[in-house]
Amino acid sequence: MTHSKQAAKRVRQNMKARMLNRGQKSKIKTFRKRFLTSVEEGNKEEAAANFTAVQALLDKAAKKNLFHPNKVNRDKARLAKKLNELG
Fold it and tell me: Does the pLDDT of residue 43 top 90, yes or no?
């Protein structure tokens, strides 16, 4: 239980931000899984399209401080490597 109106409002704001962040992280995970399944299937065109989508979502997440920029760059590099291995 909070001791002031200000603290109660902060709790509400944090909960709202947490739910929005969880949604964004879940969306990124879903698109990453789509990319990885298309890579496993060997579908280069679909993988390229999914890579572009994942890359855009990761960049937006870094811009909003959802993930550290270095983590985003590392993830993009790893995904690009998988895409390039397709040939």
Answer: yes
Contacts of 51 (CB under 8 A, 6+ apart): 35, 79, 80, 83
| Neighbour-count burial for 39-53, b at 16+ CB within 10 Å, e otherwise | beeeeeeebeebbee
**Helix boundaries (H) for 1-87:** 5-41, 44-63, 69-85
Domain residue limits at 33: 5-85
Assign residue 64 the CATH number of its domain: 1.20.58.110
pLDDT digits (tens, 9 = 90+) for 64-84: 999 999 999 999 999 999 999
